[in-house]
Amino acid sequence: MADLGSGPYRSDLGTPGVGAARVDDAAPVPETAVVGDAHLGDIQGAFGTIRQFDAESRRTWKRRLLTLLAIVGPGIIVMVGDNDAGGVSTYAQAAQNYGLTLLWTLPLLIPVLVVNQEMVVRLGAVTGVGHARLINERFGKFWGAFSVGDLFILNFLTITTEFIGVNLALAYFGVSPDISVPVAAAALVAITATGSFRRWERFMFVFIVANFLVIPLAVFSHPHASAFFHDFAVPGVRGGFTSTSVLLVIAIVGTTVAPWQLFFQQSNIVDKRITPRWISYERADTVIGSFVTVFAASLIMAVVATAFSGHPLFGHFTNAEAVAHGLSRYVGHAAGALFSVVLLNASLIGAASVTLATSYAFGDVFGARHSLHRSWREAKFFYASFTAMVICAAAIVLVATGRLLGLITTGVQALAGVLLPSATVFLLLLCNDKEVLGPWVNRPWLNVIAFGIVSLLLVLSLLLMATTVFPHLAVRELSLGMGSALALVYLVGGAGYWRVLRQRPPEPPMPRSRRDHWRMPPLNRLERPVWSRSRLLAMYSLRGYLVLAVALLAVKAFQLGVHN
After folding, report:
1. If we measure between CA atoms, which residue out of 12, 394, 390, 377 comes closest to residue 178?
2. pLDDT score for 469
3. Contact present, 101 and 237 (Cβ < 8 Å)
4. How many CA atoms within 13 Å lie on the side-chain side of 508?
């Protein structure tokens, strides 16, 4: 384990340490919005330590690599956690039903992941507080309750799907859900409630390493390299774009940036004590994680497509357990077993990440202690909420019928698509708030890209919602119409934004030395932003859309339950 720094320095507790600012050179530390001593101190990562007042330069590649090893964690964990049980099932379904012809969707996910989560990186490092608390303090308790309430509903259902994944994965080995689900629930609580951030992060890296079991899985199935790289780069769909294939494309894209990811990574960065000086390293962590995620997803699709191509089960996806049995039949028992282990691993890291994101958010909203640095005795509410969600989700999987579990798995994906644009709108508002980010606010070019991503996600969620509730809609015509409307919005909005930028006086850049140490002041000292009538109308319209969409989705789920 690396301990970066040297010389007669002081640590955050005032005792002799390494890697901090010299006592005689130390400047007064300005007040920040960080709450509680658990979020202040040394960065204690899985692979190294960085002292709180570390002022040493990183001029050599060795020093930079050691620093990256100490920082790495929040980015790669949130990305790999996104390849959860639902993600693995979606990739397997796309491959079993359409071969490799939907593989091209995956590289498109990298910029979406990086742009959205990079904004979260800056918010966490600069503000020192969680996403839920920022929304609550900057926009009021109404919007805070709206944001966290939606997050809780979606996250709880997502956690339930993770235990469904645990059930399916271990059922392949003949393990009863009465054993697999409770043991998995107990393991998740034990891993999280250790009272040590470093210990928890090391457990997460065990799951991340297990994610690479897709490599020997690919070796067993021998996918054709030429077909893989062709479909990776060239868009197309076997049999043409139909209602079903377009919905599956939307499902793949919809699993990319889930609302829980925003809340998890920001709070995890705060909990790890990452400050603005280390933003570049956390950005690298996030980029690495996005490539790891797409790499694993691509191999899952390649494995399943190769195994089922030319066999009777091709085009007849049922669930992930059936995929494992199909791999065992067509490739070998080792392939089926490896796929089941990959699914189990995805379910566990997904459950750990999503549940922790919710507990972090509850701590923000209710002002309770919420840190993995604290023991159970010091943060009872934090760990109790985590445990309660895990137990309730596991109980639903144990008592619910297969039909209800299938409805939950299907409905969660649609619900995530509906709620995602709202989460990204709040993200954009915060990243353009100078009171919050100061010199770290979004650059104009980043706003353009982020707006494009948000609007595209909104269109996709609308399309997903419309085709979920009204499955007989002409998807091609609807997609073309919505795409044309979106292009018109880009044209008009881009012209207006360019005119605003031209009229805005340029601001002198802040020196790097000041920028690296700029932190958001205490929230009670900031002026709350005043929304214009047009912005307020837009936000209430978005709220109304969400209420209507969720209601329609509930009606559709009830109809499916009655008729199936």
Report:
1. 394
2. 65
3. yes
4. 2
**CA-to-CA separations, 172 to 2, 164, 347, 401, in angstroms, rounded:** 41, 13, 15, 19
Domains in the chain (CATH in brackets) are 2-67 (no CATH), 78-507+514-531 (1.20.1740)
CA angle 390, 381, 153 (to 5 degrees): 45
Of 172-181, 262-271, 366-375, 470-479, the one with minimum mean pLDDT is 470-479
> What's the chain's average pLDDT?
84
Cα separation, 383 vs 63, in Å, equals: 36
On whether the CB atoms of residues 320 and 343 are closer than 8 A, the answer is: yes
Sign, CA torsion 329/87/394/206: positive
Confidence of residue 20 (pLDDT cuts 50, 70, 90): very low
Burial of 143 (0-12, 13-18, 19+ CB in 10 A): middle
Q: What is the mean pLDDT of residues 105-110?
A: 88
Pairing type for strands 48-50 and 2-4 reads parallel
What phi and psi values does residue 49 have, to the nearest 5 degrees? -125, 140
